[in-house]
Each structure stands twice: as C-alpha cells, then as structure tokens.
Design goal:
243 residues; single chain; mainly alpha; Coenzyme Q (Ubiquinone) biosynthesis protein Coq4; Coq4; globular
Length: 243
C-alpha cells in the first residue's frame, strides 16, 4: 500500500456510514469509521505541525501508549480522588465501559491494513487521538450525551482540523434539533473554546493521568466547564454498556 492509497479519502465508505449514523445516532461506535475514511492527509498535516513544536517533538520521541495506560485499571484505581485517571475510571464505571474502552472503537473503526502501513509517528498519532477522546470529554466538561458528543466533535475539529472529524461535526450540526438553534450555538462556542485553549494534541495524557483534573483544565484554558442540559439518546449513564 503506497502513500497515496494510505491517505486516500474513501468517499463511498464514509457516506454509507454517515447515512447509517443519521438514522441511528446512538451508534457512536461507527464514528471512527467515518473519521478514518475521510481524514485523508489530516495525519501528515498534524504531524508536520507537531514536528515544528518542541513539546510535540518530545512526545513523538517517547510515544507513550495511552491505550495501555487507560487499560491499566489497577494503576488507575491507585490514583487519588480528583485526578484525571480517577475521573476516567469513575466515568468507565458509570458508563459500563470495559477495560478495552476506546480500543473497541479503534478496532472496529479502522482498517488493519491501512493502520499497519502507517509510519510509526502516524500510527502513534492516530491511536493517541482516538484513545484521548474519552479524556477530552473529562477535561472539556462535555458529557457523553448527544449534545455533549457533537460539541466535543466541534471542539476536536477546530483543534485538529481533521477532515473526518469535521464531517462528523457537520452531521451533528445538521442532526441536533433544539429550540432557537441552541445546539448549533453550543457547537460554535465549543469551536471557539478550542481555538483559545492549549493544543490538546501535544499533551502527554499518560503523564497527566495522575494530575488533578481541575488543575489540568485550568492549565489548558478549559476552566470553567460548560453548564448545559444533557440530551440523551438511548441508554443514560449506568443503563447499559457503551463499549
């Protein structure tokens, strides 16, 4: 598989999944399929930016495995209350998430052949972006309800400029139906917040797991968290398994 094939936008596949998601908004496990199909050269563009920033270059050299860190529940259980890792574990318990967490979404939403063909830095970046999604929920304050998810998509699209994420944010803006375009206005606020905040892509989330959540939010420019009424589709937290 050459570079052109690896980074080709798979329009038909993305459209098919997008139609499915429009009819089945609770099937968030399919979101990663659209992102991978439509991200095109988003990973190389993000890497180019990372390689021009000292903090991001250091992260690329170390390549800490966020997926492994989030699956180590024994370590997370040992962290003090109020830390990011403790908050993540609590959210897993509330949502009924297994130790695999986002690993299920990564496996079902990405092409093994394409992932294997990525250069090491791109593979690390793709995995980190997918696995950090649940942590983004915690540090931004957007919950896992429908409105929280589309706002986080708008936030992530503004931060990463990933065309696949932009497509999902666009679907969210079209799908959310609240009086006086309240959902769309919240999404715009989320995008504006993303542009003001620190760049989350270059953060070492493995290291931050044992830091106080509020401290992280303040340092990243994400304090105070938004206050809004969640819009749940299907099971509410604690009523079924998400992954």
């Amino acid at each position: 598989m050459d570079d052109a094939q690896i980074h080709a936008i798979r329009w038909r596949e993305g459209l098919d999944v997008l139609r499915f998601l429009y009819r089945n908004p609770a099937r968030t496990d399919q979101i990663t399929r659209v992102i991978e199909a439509w991200q095109g050269r988003s990973l190389p563009r993000t890497l180019a930016r990372m390689r021009g920033r000292p903090k991001a270059r250091a992260l690329l050299r170390r390549k800490p495995s966020l997926g492994d860190a989030l699956a180590d529940w024994e370590r997370l259980e040992s962290l003090p209350a109020g830390t990011l890792g403790h908050a993540y574990l609590a959210s897993c318990e509330t949502l009924g998430t297994t130790r695999r967490g986002m690993g299920v979404y990564v496996e079902t939403g990405t092409s093994p052949a394409r992932t294997a063909a990525l250069e090491p830095d791109e593979r690390f970046l793709q995995d980190t972006l997918f696995f950090s999604h649940d942590l983004y929920h915690l540090v931004t304050g957007y919950q896992t309800d429908l409105l929280g998810e589309v706002c986080l998509l708008a936030f992530t699209a503004a931060q990463t400029r990933n065309t696949g994420v932009m497509a999902m944010a666009g679907l969210g803006a079209y799908s959310i139906r609240l009086p006086r375009l309240a959902g769309q206005r919240m999404m715009l606020n989320a995008a504006a917040l993303a542009l003001r905040a620190e760049w989350l892509v270059e953060q070492d989330w493995v290291e931050l797991l044992d830091h106080p959540l509020e401290q992280i939010q303040r340092e990243l420019g994400l304090w105070p968290p938004p206050v809004y009424k969640p819009v749940w589709v299907g099971n509410k937290p604690g009523q079924g398994r998400r992954a």
